[in-house]
User: What shape does this take?
Amino acid sequence: MSKYFTLEELTQSGTALRLGIPNTPNATQKRDLLRLMDYLDGIREEFGEPIKVTSGFRSWNVNKSVGGVKNSQHLAGQAADIVPAQKPERLRELFDIIRKRGGYQQVIYERKGQSLWVHVAIPPLGEMPKQEAMTTNDGKNFTRLK
Assistant: This one.
């Protein structure tokens, strides 16, 4: 099990609760959530302070309700949106740690209105990480980083 994260934390959804939508992962999704939690543990260790998961696993209906893309890795239990739990001003540092650490499928520094977060996804089981790093200010237009 994870040192810093729980399955409950990665499957909780305010949208699911508010709308009465189930948000329960199946066995394959749970397996990938455990892999994601292991990856997040490494990031947490390097970051040196708590990280809050603002969005983890999403069922199809939850993903649709929040306006998520149809091929979102949140659906597979392979992605989380995260922020520093104590010092929001360290968000860019968190993003940079993930980029330097590697092993990710995708990492995105996201802004939507006044909200800021880092989206991080692990590769599907058995696949090599693509290591795509991007930024976006609207969730639609992305700038790829080298």
About this structure: Helices lie at 7-11, 14-19, 27-47, 60-65, 91-101. The chain has a mean pLDDT of 96. The CA atoms of residues 106 and 132 lie 5 Å apart. The two ends are 33 Å apart (CA to CA).
